[in-house]
């Protein structure tokens, strides 16, 4: 109130303007600011970035042919030549583990994307069309009562092991979870006043879905997709590990561990290197998922 | 009350029906022709057709499905292609190790996770809370077999405290039985602990914000009593529900844990069956696991209807 025109009424004192005793807190911006504010998310993102780079540039980072046999160099310990040592067929473990990142990331992301799209469509239809809902939900309840790993394993028993079949099997096992989530969101969105308003204004049903319902399902679905990505990587490794996944010739982390299994008491490195990479990748995806959840749904962030 | 229970019990029927339909279809669309296998290489196409008709394989899908359901209800899960033994016999031989593994895991997981979640909620936003939740994220991210090899390496190979592999039947005494189960159970429990601890913390945070907790504090009720009697009792519904849902994790994890620790249980059976394409066995085990899962969750819900007056369907 430093206005010159303002004259205080008689008898009323006006306090002097106080200096700002609390300096405005400078909000850190840019990459460093994000790292300071959300260290775990930044860590997850960095870790996943490193894994992705490893997978993409696998042939360029000191690797040799991951399938090249060298019977004279079997079961070597880690050395300057073979960074992680060699396996029982003399193959370079470092190269195999780096190439293994490709399988895990491809499976994780393909399943996350495919299961999200399929689940979104099923969930939308089920949430919007009453007569479909009952049948679809019974089907989904049934599918969800078969543990996902068992479902994927059973599906893999029907086909030959290939990367494509692994992706399909895990996707089918994960779809019910997304579909149920989307349906739940749709059912609550339908009751929103703005949907009523759109209906009253004569908006055609497909337009309501596209403009008013669909955009609001994206946030919870993205969070779910991250967790599905992490879970798909674990299921892929388990399938490979028990011999029902990608063909043994492909160096996937699960396959490397399955091969190292017979010898793990004498040569634990063959099992441990892929194990560490797998755990770190899954951890990275989970941390990102938690970060996304906190960013997109602050209410949930407080509770969990 | 009776009608509530009855309705909940009946609601599992369609679910079980879908599971049965799925598992039946698995065998129906499985590659390979059982009739041709039985007939052998020398058989003429007519012989194969005769055997097919004899087995009833030439009849429509739905008829065969209902016959198969009838068979299951009378306790017949078919015969293994590989060993020619009834699937029920094979399953019966393998039930004990898997059931033991799951029970010990359940005890360990609930015993660790619930206090952990309660304390994390009590000490919310302190380093205790943060490390408990960091542990939970780690538990979620570390695949079961990674945990298995890690603790087997440490506690069996390096320290020699526990056997590296194998299972001792309960008939040989509780001591050896438990001794052989500790490492596999801890392995399997980790992800389960992570799940239960997170939900326990969330449910407790919700309850601890309620007015009656403040009233209890004002009355001078002890901290432990507030947490475990006033708090945990009211937070129990989501916790027990997630324990039921988490049984799916246990089942999936058992398949892997039994492979890592060479335990001759149902998980091992289904893995071997997959490698041999022994479809009747796969069918039987998947069916059994799914029904157990449905029944566990039914039991959880029913207990709540009976015990908690706030719940009505």
Automatic annotation (TrEMBL), chain A:
Its main location: membrane. InterPro entries: BP-dependent_transpt_permease, MetI-like, MetI-like_sf. It is found in: Cell membrane. Gene3D superfamilies: MetI-like. Residues 105-289 form the ABC transmembrane type-1 domain. Keywords: Cell membrane, Membrane, Transmembrane, Transmembrane helix, Transport. PROSITE patterns: ABC_TM1. The chain crosses the membrane at residues 41-61, 103-129, 226-250, 270-289. Pfam families: BPD_transp_1. It is a multi-pass membrane protein. CDD domains: TM_PBP2. Belongs to the binding-protein-dependent transport system permease family. This is ABC transporter permease.
UniProtKB/TrEMBL annotation, chain B:
CDD domains: TM_PBP2. The keyword Transmembrane helix applies. InterPro entries: BPD_transp_1_N, MetI-like, MetI-like_sf. It holds the Pfam family BPD_transp_1. Gene3D superfamilies: MetI-like. The keyword Transport applies. It is a multi-pass membrane protein. Residues 95-304 form the ABC transmembrane type-1 domain. The chain crosses the membrane at residues 12-30, 99-122, 134-157, 177-197, 235-261, 281-307. Keywords: Cell membrane, Membrane, Transmembrane, Transmembrane helix, Transport. It is found in: Cell membrane. PROSITE patterns: ABC_TM1 (PS50928). Belongs to the binding-protein-dependent transport system permease family. This is ABC transporter permease.
